[in-house]
Amino acid sequence: MLDLDSARHVVTAVIVSHDGSRWLSETLSALRAQTRAVQRVVAADTGSTDGSPDVLADHLPADAVIDLPARTGYGDAVKAALDLPRSTTEVQGYEDDATEWIWLIHDDLTPEKDALEHLLAAADQDPRSAVLGPKLRDWFDRRLLVEAGVTIDGAGRRETGLEQREFDHGQHDGTRQVLAVSSAGMLVRRDVWERLGGFDPALPLFRDDIDFCWRVGGAGLRVRLVTDAVAYHAEASARRRRRITATRNHPRRVDRRHAVFVLLANLPVGGMVFALLRNSVGSLLRVVMYLLIKQPANALDEAAAITLVYGRPFRLARARFRRRRDRRRTYSAIRPFLARGWPCGSSPTLSPRSSPGSGWLTPPDATRRSPPLRARRTTAPPTTPRPSCAAWSSNRGSCWSSA
User: Fold this and answer.
1) How are beta strands 99-106 and 9-17 bridged, if at all?
2) Which of the listed residues 223, 243, 317, 385 has the most CB atoms within 10 Å of its CB?
3) Which residues does 214 contact at the CB level (< 8 Å), separation at least 6?
4) Residue 359 is part of which domain span?
5) Which helix (H) or strand (E) holds 102?
6) Is residue 390 included in any domain, yes or no?
7) Is the pLDDT score of 135 beyond 50?
8) Which of 245, 168, 238, 229 minimizes the C-alpha distance to 209?
9) Torsions phi, psi of 352, nearest 5?
10) Measured between alpha carbons, how far is 279 from 36 in angstroms, rounded to an integer?
């Protein structure tokens, strides 16, 4: 057990579900089994048709769940859940000046039982930490690393600094400051979430976490990766294991559009102009490439994505104004955490294994990892057993239903 003053922290877990019944029961089980219990749990379901609302109803009180339309974005769903009166109910036995936290839980995320405990312990060590995230492993093969912090390059690619199918042997361990962590398992100070307005409504899905963490860093606060905290993520939306109605079933187009938007909204004027030129030329070359290899759907997505960004200048102008209003640090404080391939002094990525930002013809919507190393035989860590949903105790607190 870590030396943690639990009375100093009040945690509200927010679950957003969308056709995630395949994973949701295990997610709720893992949340309830935390060695450091959460004080409140609220949830939002966005038009699920696979029984997810029934799973939530079995485990949470009726006033802790809100039903939303299928096309509701992730950030809007989180805000709707936090608007429920249950998310602000008074918690007995905690200090008056206790720090309020929001713990974002995807319906396909299974945190280890001590994940929250480690996150809060790291928060105690650095008062400027406003966002903390766990190390993510694959939900299906729990030896594989998915993310240990994330950054972005000048073409909008999401950089993890990991090899293809890299086993976790602790080679990336160590609590450290990063540009961003995934929204899956993200722990956010509630006052910071409210001050920055949460996730940008212009980013209903994909890249919303990078954008929010970039704004947190710009506000003079820190985003930290806590590798002692571990969670298992199925990445159901990114891997298209379910329909994504919030993107109107065009995930590649939306991901590319949001990647460019995040760059143009957060970079200083000089970097924005460079990113504008780079991505304009890059998109044109990719459209030509997709047409030559007879992939017209991908060509259409690429052309539509860049057109939608440039065709809405007032939305981009409003986004830049909001970020300038909240900014307390210059771009030079953020640049060391960006991937290589940037103008005006490129910076190291999250890991020495990360490859530099490269050619325009690399598909920008995919999460980039470094080229795989030569195969070598290693002993994989043991697979973590999945908890049984029937193993719940009945005394974990009033935030859970008695059902």
Assistant:
1) parallel
2) 223
3) 179, 180, 262, 266, 334
4) 247-367
5) strand 99-106
6) no
7) yes
8) 238
9) -60, -15
10) 45
